[in-house]
Amino acid sequence: MSFKTKCLAAVAGLALMCGAVQAQTLRYANQGELKSLDPYTVNETTTHAHLGHPYEGLIRRGKNLEILPGLAEKWEVSADGLTWRFFLRKGVKFHGGEDFTADDVVFSADRSRAPGSNVQTRVPTGAKVVKIDDYTVDFQLPSPNPILHYQWDTWYIMSKKWAEANNSTQPTPANATTPTFASLNANGTGAFKVESHQPGVKTVYKVNENWWNKNPEHNLKEIIFTPIASDATRVAALLSGEVDVIEPVPIQDIQRVNASGNAQVLTGPELRTIFLGMDQARDELLESSVKGKNPFKDVRVRQAFYQAIDIETIKSRVMRGLSTPSPLMIAPELFPSTGFTRAKFDSAAAKKLLADAGYPDGFELGMDCPNDRYVNDGAICQAVVGMLARIGVKVNLNAQPKGQYFGKVLKPGGYKTSFYLLGWTPGTSDAHNVLFDIMGCRDNPASSRGESNVGGYCNKKLDALTDKILVEVDKAKRDAMIREAFQLSIDDFAYIPLHQQALAWGVSKKVKLPQRADNAVNFQYAIKE
Amino acid sequence: MLAFILRRLFQSLIVMLSVALIAFAMFRFVGDPVNQIVSIDTPQAQVAEIRRSLGLDDPFLVQFARYIYNAARLEFGVSYQFRLPVISLLGERAPATLELAFCSALFSLAVGIPMGVYTALRRESPLAKLFQAISLVGISLPTFLIGILLIYLFSVTLGWLPSFGRGEVVKIGSWWTTGFLTGSGLKALILPSITLGLFQMTLIMRLVRAEMLEVLRADYIKFARARGLKTRAIHFGHALKNTLVPVITIAGLQLGSIIAFAIITETVFQWPGMGQLFLRSVQNVDIPIMAAYLMLISFLFVSINLAVDLLYALVDPRLRATVGA
Fold it and tell me: Across the strands, what pairs with A226?
């Protein structure tokens, strides 16, 4: 090796080292604000993603949503499936300097199930959390639960000592008159500390030098977060280089961002499934020209509606290619859709089905739709109205802001809708949640089964399967039962699944960031030049 | 005089109560606040419990009476979305709004008055015609469009000015934050102030122009000319001075509306002020913030009007006579 090449190599090596150690500030803007730092007050993806910087759970989810050890190094399940033992990571410290021990896990389990918490389902109500020693915790369950830890990446562990010292042992209830310390301050074990937080204005995170993970995959020293609600301003801030990452990018701006040269849009399928639901519970539809009976009680009408919808047109025209038509009510990332196909789009067949059901000239009905909740939700509904008009069904669309929409169609509003559009991401990342919450019969008022089943679809066979799925620990058997249950709902045309909408993150060319399908923007893996 | 003031105060109180009542009646149409607090898979029993604990199940009049009772003790409750006292949220945001309002009022006066004078004096010059055209734009283009155009020109294309936010702010005292003391803070003020002030500027320019033309036709101006006074002295010493009385009245009243209507500008520029907080609260059905903000704005208008009325009574002897009678 000549002297020259040696020099070059040395310089290159130095440059590489510098590149690796040079810590950067990353600026991030999201449509929504970070409302509270209390990890148990708001159960929503954006908030959980934010709090994933200062806080950590017993498990983590990796770049592809795979389950990884977090604050627990490993865990084992007893043969009867009733006891889960978690072995905690040793030598972990909270930002405030407190040691992380089993006491904190027990405390966090209680706090997350206390009144005022919005993450009460993370740890089942009947579960007993027992400290075995400082670094071992048992979860004793009333019935087996194979997916106990699925949501624990967002069940953040708080410090018992810190909460007690700051009078924050209870989550801030909705009717509180004074804010708790924990809603304005955070003390976790995570990769970043909260340096300052002004709700709805600005939040600054600083890197945690004492993080237990000595090989962080990011090169940041600081994250500055600002909410920017206006779409145009958010895109402008990215294009002018004032922020490095924005979420979301409006579909109509994607091309412009990509063409700008200094930023690009990362797109990918999201876990949320957008679908149409039909009121099958009432004896007469609330808003319809058909009196004395409910046309949706006839499976042929439901099939006709399904087959009247041209999903490819919705994809290409309304979603500009950024959607994945779905045969199932769950995203393929959460449950494989292989073997399932959508019922074919066929207006003629749909018209014939309607005629067979006794509606040769169609009928008239009302439809409810949000217009500020999902990507292009109002436009999807308008397209559906047009498609149904082709088979003679006249739809009176009521597109409304989410505040009004959810107030009307969900349980507190009395499910007041005949035909509606909704999006659903199973909070547990598991099919059981879909089968239980949106496909379960809602005939038992004491049970929470089917609470979000707005259309009131009911099939007792499906319910029986759902109950078995909950406690089945053998994965192959469980998956087979889930397939069977989904097939039942498909045969019944219980719902009309439309698509998984696409994620759209605007990212500066200087930043490398993996995109996770659950839409959690986490900078643990972000590299900025 | 005292009776007049008392009567005015009483009327102001009635106005504020009616604003509160109308606002409260409208809240029933913005949607269900509890759905914004919980997530879609929260058990319904818990949802019902939250609704009950917030007193949302009570009859309308009970809720209204409770609100007025608390508001009278200056307790405006806790924001549903932030779980923080509304007073402190609004207090935190007030400096941003007030500084923005101050700057845009300054801008509209400092630019509007000279433009108005110029267009009145040199009616036929091309520059005056250009000013007239600009004022047409200011009157007819909606604020958000002007804001976005400015952002695209000065932030995205030229890269001179920030597109959002307040820049670095400095804390003064216990709660006031100011952007006047840092470079980035001053830079951040430019675009929003112009956006917000453009309409007022147009208004003032047109007002000054019309008043000026009127005054220039008056006898005392003709007399001044006949006396051989310098044109400059006539225009600025006599004409402008007499023009300014109605301008000051209008500008004072407009200050209230600048603060109240900063909502759109603040949203476009993500300006962390009260208006932006209000708009987000409407989207999130955050009733305590909406109610407090509307009360605050009505208080602002009521007190400005009250002050103006009292000043008139003080300044104008004729009014004082009728009031006394």
Answer: A29
